[in-house]
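A brief tutorial aside. Many learners find it easier to grasp structure tokens once they have seen a single protein encoded end to end. The record that follows does exactly this for 4,4'-diaponeurosporenoate glycosyltransferase. Read the sequence first, then the structure, and try to relate runs of similar tokens to stretches of the chain.
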Amino acid sequence: MGRLLITFLLSVIGLMSGLTFLWKVPLIEKNRPSFKRRLKVSVIIPARNEEQSLPQLLSSLKDQNFPIEEIIVVDDDSTDRTLEVAEEFGIQVISEFEHTGKSAACWAGAKQAKGDYLVFLDADTFFVGSDALEKALSTYRQEMKTGLLSIQPYHVIKQFYETLAIVPNIVVMAGLNRFSLFQNLPKRGAFGPFILVNKEEYESVGGHGAILDSHMDDIELAKLYKTHHLPVEVFGGQESIHFRMFPEGVKQLLNGITKSLIHGSKGTHAVTLIAIGLWLLSTILPIVLFVLASIQEAILFIFLSIIMYGVGCLHFRWLMNKVGRFPWQTALVPFFYVLSFLVIYAWALIQVYILKKVSWRGRVHKV
């Protein structure tokens, strides 16, 4: 009976812990006043082998009601039709620059940009609504006026295998300590898919030129801004910007998650890590409790295990709605997605600490 009680209590504690790390995800507000004067904004898109994703992003940029000064696609030595796709949209393309990688591509685009404000966008993102960019700019101008504004896009999927990104998305968002119930935790990082900065300020701190060797430009750029005592704010993109992260298959999903999890988890606060760990455990414990209670014919604990499983499914649904739009049925089997996450994370550890390399977009990065 003692084991059953301990298992039940751990399950409860785990669910309660799961309420803390994504307590509130602020969104860019829907109704923002128009600007009294035009702002010069340059959009910079680092792209490597993004021929599938780029058209949707460029189309959404063309649909924005805010006049964009220029859109620059920085082709990072693509081997597909990325360059041709950008040119078909009449977009300025930079294809020759020093170094390689996302940070170098962002820096190359920033150096040629004419705008007073720079927006760095991943190629797999796209705006939702014609006023999304204007809302982000208004938020920056009215609430921050300085520093770095970042938005984590809302994840949308088309294929079943993409649901494997549910738990990694939750963990990555939680890892920044920015949406936690515990507001006194040290905040860290930003979200790389959307970053908005003032160009003059960006250049004064060194911008991406100061972090050329980094594989996680978002975390390092945010750290750079903090070093110069400049604010970093992050928002959720549910009503403004979405992305489909892994349209090319399971291999792309595994490589992308590996890169994000390993580099992103290094600076996560211990309190957040413990809360995440307890929550992951709580998705499996009701099943363990049900099996143990069935063996011992403990009717009360069988009943409690069923209740805890149901509550866990609702909680899983609550969390996954914060990070993306996934089929509701996925909430019925949270243990499956947690176990899948643990397998992916184990593979990530093997790549980083044993093989000491991570593959992404046809490149092998040594770590």
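Self-check: Residues 41-247 form a domain with the Spore Coat Polysaccharide Biosynthesis Protein SpsA; Chain A fold (CATH 3.90.550.10). If you spotted this yourself, you are ready for the next section.
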